[in-house]
Amino acid sequence: MATFLRNKLNALYTQVAAGTPLTSADLAGLGISSNLAGQYAKAGWLTRLSQGVYARPNDVLDLHRCLAVLQKNVPGLHVGGKTALDWHGLRQYVALKPVLQLYGWESATLPVWFTERFPAEYRRKRLFQEEPGNMWHVQPHSGSDALASSPERALLEMLSEVGLRQPLQEAREITGSTHHLRSRVLRQLLEQCTSVKTVRLCLQLGRELQLPWEKKLDADSLPAGSQSPWVSRSRDGLLVLK
Fold first, then answer.
1. Secondary structure class of 229 (helix, strand, coil)
2. Which of 87, 85, 80 has the alpha carbon at shortest distance from 130?
3. Residue 125 φ/ψ, nearest 5 degrees
4. What torsion, rounded to 10 degrees, do the Cα atoms 155, 156, 160, 162 define?
5. Looking at 69-73, 202-206, 226-230, which range is the least confident one?
6. Which of 7, 15, 30, 77 has its CA 20 to 30 A from that of 92?
7. Alpha carbon 191 to its chain's center
8. How many domains, in total, are found in the chain?
């Protein structure tokens, strides 16, 4: 029996990469039942993070591996907006305490074990015509399983927050650094965008900042709404998008 348990522990330490949180399903795949996982936790061979989620003792959890675990339970979960832009090297300044911007398809609450280690904000957002299992220009980042928006999608996600949680001036400054965005990808995303404000703000900033990609977009073919101005009042003042 001792040899049997030792073999399971060996599998836990040899088959699982360091920094990986383990769900009950992950442990079951290693032949470790929920009852056995509880025994391991009591013996100090596993650390219980929350109901059905464990880590190896003294293991420093890896952000990308944690995100991959959360993605299994939150449809469409991915790193987006300002964080994804930062991951792609598009930033105005380096924040002392960066907060992860996470987006998903459904309402959800991030687990405490995650936010204690990685300060984050989660937002349910359906900015494009798509399905959570087949999102436009969202892909694994840097060879990991953690999903992140392309820079073009991340830009539109950030602009969609202007007037809500995202200051306009900062958005303008970050947009000014997007000279090398792919106009083909941006046009495809704008065509699928469900937010008139986001489409108009993207086009307006592109014109004001004389960005190369703006000249390659056919504004008349994009879903920018009626001829009436889009008007919103926020902490930044009155935002008028023609």
1. coil
2. 80
3. -145, 130
4. 30
5. 226-230
6. 77
7. 21
8. 2
How many other CB atoms are found less than 10 A from the CB of residue 201?
24
CA angle (62, 63, 69) in 5-degree steps: 95
Give the integer Cα–Cα distance in Å for 33 and 151: 42
For residues 14-29, give the mean pLDDT.
90
Q: What is the mean pLDDT of the chain?
A: 89
Do residues 71 and 11 share a domain?
no
Assess whether 84 and 125 both reside in one domain.
Answer: yes
Q: Tokens representing 37?
A: 């996982």
Q: Which residues contact 81 (CB under 8 A, 6 or more apart)?
A: 101, 103, 149, 154, 157, 158, 161, 166
> Quick one: pLDDT at residue 92?
75
Task: Pick 93 or 137 by higher pLDDT.
Answer: 137
Do 88 and 24 share a structural domain? no
CB 129 within 8 A of CB 199: no
CA 121 – CA 141 distance, rounded (Å): 19
What pLDDT sits at residue 130?
96
Domain residue limits at 233: 63-241
Residues 242 and 238: their CA atoms lie apart, in Å, by: 13
CB atoms within 10 A of CB 187: 17
Residues 156, 222: one domain? yes
Residue type, 159: L
Three-state SS for 199? helix
Residues in the chain: 242
pLDDT of residue 238: 44
pLDDT tens digits, one per residue of 158-180: 999 998 889 999 999 999 999 99
Kindly state whether residues 151 and 115 are assigned to the same domain: yes
